[in-house]
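Quick start: what a row looks like.
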Amino acid sequence: MSSNNRAVKIVLVGDGSTGKSSYVARICREGFHNDYIATLGYEKTEVMVNTTDGEFTITVWDTAGQEKAGSLRDEYYEGAHGAVLFFDVTSKTTYKNIPVWHRDLMRVCGDSLPVVLFANKVDVKERKVKSKSIIYHQKYPKSMALVEGSVKDRIHLKEPMEYVLRSITNNSELSICASLEASLFAAFDAIDIMKEDSDTQK
């Protein structure tokens, strides 16, 4: 890959209600390029990311409700540089379905595809899937990493993207400049403040 702005496709997979769409909303917010692909039933969102290894345009593909394991078309996976596999730590079923989703990924993309196993909702005290019982990623030490986080509380949102980017650039020291969503929130908060000031002056 060149040192210029590089295009990267990352697919989000996992059972419904595990936080995939909320994750996209958190890191992108409104106003960023978002396309609904009617023929496939998926959504893709472009995010510009500045890193210590240059700029990337990450296209994040979301299932947009097509969450039945094994039901996604091959076109959803094809061309992916990495994937984030979601499960909900308050639901054992979503963790048990991880192998099904991963097999589907490997069937199309191969077993070397960088995958982040994202354990979502760690902010909830009554979690059903404890940290010590999350061992699936250990079967694939070269291509899968575990990240425990919370989309709701903005915990470890940039780590999945960093893992994929580090894998495809072969740069273990790559890091996203500032929080992935911090700069985005700052920009939109500034717009919100300007709108509020404008409203008070009317």
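That is the whole record. The CA atoms of residues 99 and 136 lie 8 Å apart. Strands lie at 6-14, 34-37, 42-51, 54-62, 82-88, 115-120, 144-148.
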